[in-house]
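Below is how a single chain appears once it has passed through the pipeline. First comes the sequence as given, then the structure the pipeline wrote out for it. We keep one example in the README because the format questions we get most often are answered faster by looking than by reading.
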Amino acid sequence: MTAVEAKPMTTDEPLILSETDGRVGVIRLNRPKVLNALNPQLMSQLAEQLEAFDADDGISCIVISGNERAWAAGADIGDMAKQSAIDMYERDQFATWDRMKRIKKPIVAAVSGYALGGGCELMMLCDVIVASETAQIGQPEINIGVMPGAGGTQRLTKAVGKAIAMDVILGGRFLTAKEALQFGLVSRVVPAEHYFTEAMRAAQKLAKMPLTALKIAKEAVLKAHDSNLSDGLEYERKLFYLLFATEDQKEGMSAFVEKRKPNFKGR
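Resulting structure:
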């Protein structure tokens, strides 16, 4: 979860937009000025809308989209930069992510442009991922003195394997859409002008399937994929909080907010 210093938006700008198209519920992240940075308020609203669609008998599949420039370029660094390890532990911001993980209906991600940090982690929570050729996918938290904390080290490693995950997480490497498809991180790649249409087409097809079977089949696949994932996520979370006790975290996030190069000291 990282990458964007978000500025406050006016109260009349909704953080998400939602609509229905037949049996498909559509959610659009709506912070375009900050590349859809994932602040706590947006994540809370996203979880609430996902739960509402999940409880709606008229909806069989859910689509989450950003915009052509960015799916989500990361978390709100300005919101976290001055937090202590105990502050981060007490705010328990990842409880929202746990709520989204419990959504039973299939979720299709329509991904274009930046999917970085928390944006990559949100993408990996989805079940079918349709990516634009322009997609850039990564976990660059290391550049601001921390590490992924919303599942990045665990889900990315399970999806692409240790070697690529190390390159992405330790080295800050961005994957192209073509690479992400090659490594099994996304489901399909399409031209930029078609990514949302293709995601909707996939969702509409799923929405015609028997809903109970859809939900149970999703549960079974996740069981296979998530074996021992809970232990890994708990461990990752503790390590993420611990990094807020380091000088490098303070320097990394301060430098990001101040738009300067960080001076890391290894402590």
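DSSP finds twelve helices and ten strands in the chain.

See the next section for the split statistics.
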